[in-house]
Amino acid sequence: MKTIVAFSTAHYERNIRCSSWRLAVETNNIIRFKTVPAKCKDYIRKYILGKQYSADTKEVLSEAYSYAKSIDIIKGGNYTWVFNIDDTLLSNVQYYASRGFGTKPRNVTSFNHWIQHGKSRALPHSLKLYNKLLGLHYKIVLITKRPESQRKITVKNLRDAGYRQYAKIIFKDTTKERYIGKTTLVYKSHERKILEKEGFRIIGNIGDQWSDILGTSASIRSFKLPNPLY
Amino acid sequence: MKTIVAFSTAHYERNIRCSSWRLAVETNNIIRFKTVPAKCKDYIRKYILGKQYSADTKEVLSEAYSYAKSIDIIKGGNYTWVFNIDDTLLSNVQYYASRGFGTKPRNVTSFNHWIQHGKSRALPHSLKLYNKLLGLHYKIVLITKRPESQRKITVKNLRDAGYRQYAKIIFKDTTKERYIGKTTLVYKSHERKILEKEGFRIIGNIGDQWSDILGTSASIRSFKLPNPLY
């Protein structure tokens, strides 16, 4: 009996520690981590595949919709909503499941193969919000750090997943000198600045990474989707 | 039997929803909420009084210490760490426990009475980090939105709780016209700008509210302590 109790307590303590780790990642306290801690593999697997990840996503997007509705949108007024793509509109959970739910580092070759496969599914709550924002007459702009070379497969994957209507989709032009060696935060800030100069009025912005929503020319209000995988 | 199962599922679902609510608050997705949702009272009470809140705090402060240690501090170089006070250095959990763990709105009279009582305890992990930062020769600066009128009792409470050594403590001068009707974010950003002009080099910053750590003249790296109570 004693052994069972000891095991059970250790498991409980590990869940507490993994929950703290996840919260610290989501709140931008733990940054630039390479992989999910090995001891948290089971915890993260249950989190992602169970009800909590879906519920956490729904809560954020429901708040985003309340905010979006509260804005007095004038049709043709260039009211814009910016979306990130990976693990914001399209889910890569299937890929990360094959990499030990983030406990193994992302492999460039296999990840590009996954992208080129073009079978990423929509995050269901994101697709719902996307359609609701179109209904409210927001212009949608997608900014991704996927390179230009993945434009064709990405547009097709988005269309297959239900994302068919957007004013603009911006890929990272890796040949541009200004982006060489620069962070995603710098790249995305600069692209948003260009959008503003073009007349887009960025009201909302949603991403699963802090680098999607921090920086300059950010929206009036930004939303951070959960993602403990990377 | 059926009733019991139904009750149990409802409880489970409520915990999922309350967990999503808490995450959305911690990640700055839900903002300016007036009270904790009534249905989450029991969930938040267990979170705060159980092991998770303490573990979540410890995780953030442990990460902060790793960062603090990684900086090459030169003694006398004005390397500075900024702390918020309420629910960062001193805990008001006892007060909020009397207000239904955030489910009842803060009452100005009773909260001021609590502050004037001067019996707030240190958050144990914060006190440890505070002492470690002093050991690393950081200058400590405290910025609080408590008014000047609470200076004496606050300094005494801090001393009693173990916080005895800081370069500066800044209270909100509510008679200053620039702060009338301004947010905490504006007030704290401005005070940090003054610090910078005075030669303080802000390396780290810790608070339990996003208004403590967003804005301008922020530190190189900021840390957000958990607080689902307000």
The name CATH uses for the topology of chain A is: Rossmann fold
Low-pLDDT segments of chain A: none
Question: For this structure, what is the CATH class of chain A?
Answer: Alpha Beta
Which outline of chain A best applies? globular
Instruction: Return the average pLDDT of chain A rounded to an integer.
Output: 95
Q: Give the termini distance of chain A in whole angstroms.
A: 39 Å
Helix-strand sequence of chain A: HHHEEHHEHEHEHEHE
Radius of gyration of chain A: 19 Å
* Oligomer type: homodimer
Number of continuous helical runs of chain A = 9
CATH superfamily of chain A: HAD superfamily/HAD-like
> Helical residue percent of chain A?
40-55%
The fraction of residues assigned to DSSP E strands of chain A is: 5-15%
The CATH architecture classification of chain A is 3-Layer(aba) Sandwich
Structural class by SSE content of chain A: alpha/beta
Largest sheet of chain A: 5 strands, parallel
What features would you highlight for this structure?
homodimer, 230 residues, alpha/beta, Rossmann fold, five-stranded parallel beta sheet, two-stranded antiparallel ribbon, 7 strands, globular
Helix-strand blueprint:
The structure is a homodimer.
Chain A: H1 2-26, H2 41-49, H3 51-70, E1 79-83, E2 90-91, H4 93-97, H5 108-117, E3 121-122, H6 124-135, E4 139-147, H7 151-161, E5 168-172, H8 184-197, E6 201-207, H9 210-213, E7 221-224
Parallel strand pairs in A: 1-4, 1-6, 4-5, 6-7
Antiparallel strand pairs in A: 2-3
Helix pairs in contact in A: 3-6
